[in-house]
Automatic annotation (TrEMBL):
Cleavage, annotated site positions: A198, T199
Subcellular location: Cytoplasm
InterPro entries, sorted: Arg_biosynth_ArgJ (IPR002813), ArgJ-like_dom_sf (IPR016117), ArgJ_beta_C (IPR042195)
Protein name: Arginine biosynthesis bifunctional protein ArgJ
Active-site residue list: T199
Pathway recorded for this protein: Amino-acid biosynthesis; L-arginine biosynthesis; L-ornithine and N-acetyl-L-glutamate from L-glutamate and N(2)-acetyl-L-ornithine (cyclic): step 1/1; Amino-acid biosynthesis; L-arginine biosynthesis; N(2)-acetyl-L-ornithine from L-glutamate: step 1/4
A Gene Ontology biological process term: ornithine biosynthetic process
Residues flagged as site, Involved in the stabilization of negative charge on the oxyanion by the formation of the oxyanion hole: T123, G124
Organism: Paenibacillus xylanivorans
EC class of the enzyme, as a word: transferase
Amino acid sequence: MGTNVEQQAFTIVENGTIVTPRGFTAGGLHCGLKKTSRNDIGAIRCDVPATAAAVYTTNVFQAAPLKVTRESLSNGRLQAVIVNSGNANACTGQQGEEDAYAMRTATARELGVAEEDVAVASTGVIGELLKMDAVHSGISGLPARLGKEAEEAEHFSQAILTTDLVKKEACVAVEVNGKTITIAGAAKGSGMIHPNMATMLAFMTSDAVIGAEALQRLLRQATNHTFNMITVDGDTSTNDMLVAMSSGLAGNEELTTEHPDWEAFAAGFTYVCEVLAKAIARDGEGATKLVEVQVTGAVSDESAQAIAKTVIGSSLVKSAMFGADANWGRIIAAVGRAGQPVNPETVDIRLGEISVLAQSRPVVFDEEVALAYLQTDTVRIVVDLNHGEGTAIAWGCDLTYDYVRINAAYRT
């Protein structure tokens, strides 16, 4: 599949995890918030107060943990993150807010860090109060479960999942001042996914020396090109959060936009975001395939983004992808309603390498070849507007019967 990132700037760390960067430990366990025995509470801890940044859901109804995390992050620093799944602690009023603060207090005490250096994240069912006895039991058991090994990282990754079928992880290494900097990430997300922060939680760690302002700027830029370019079902949630922490233990000269190795670091950071974002799209509820929409020839990158997101979010396009139907009419219709400048006489569309539309006119193609391509687990739709220099890539998945089944019984 296509990528927005030049990979020459960094090295992929095979089997790297959220604890690969210097200074970080993580872990998770089952405390009873979920009906199953899957892990449902986890934590990341840094040996030192880390530079930190975050982006949040744009949903007007924001869950209590987001308020607590915003407060903790007001000084641009974090040393720990506590996260639970199985309950979103959203739309729970004053009690929910008190419970989120209680999670922060208990985590600070158990992990030996300052209370204002703890972020709180929750995901799961909206509108139900947390079982705080279970939460406190889980938090008290976490210190013995935190570690640097792959097993502890696995336990954390499992603790943040809801309807996800698989964990999402990525890790790269970048050379900065001749020192090896590591950037890693772990995420959850499967349903209620839509650009402008989807129902996802994502956590990134690094050992680079970087200031809070520079990290926040990079996080926003990377998010706009990755997590904000995915969709599963067009819904955004109340709890979406992406938190990045950098320990500074690599000992490099502080990274700024003027640093000679900034572009390499930014490329590695963005790549981790992209891998996680695509993994979320691929694991969409009920999905059978990852769908990528690449738009070129738009009047601007922003216009290309809007068109790509409209196509990838179209229920008709997504349904056609599920049925392996090369119905390019669904695609051109989505392009036309995106509200962006388009010359209706110059549009080309390809399904992979199969041309189906040229200069807005149908192309005769082999239906059997197209069917075989659309039945693969990764499909690329290419739309060339031939109208400018703007480009963008968006990711999503097909819309299946199982999506309805899963969400029709989410609470039960």
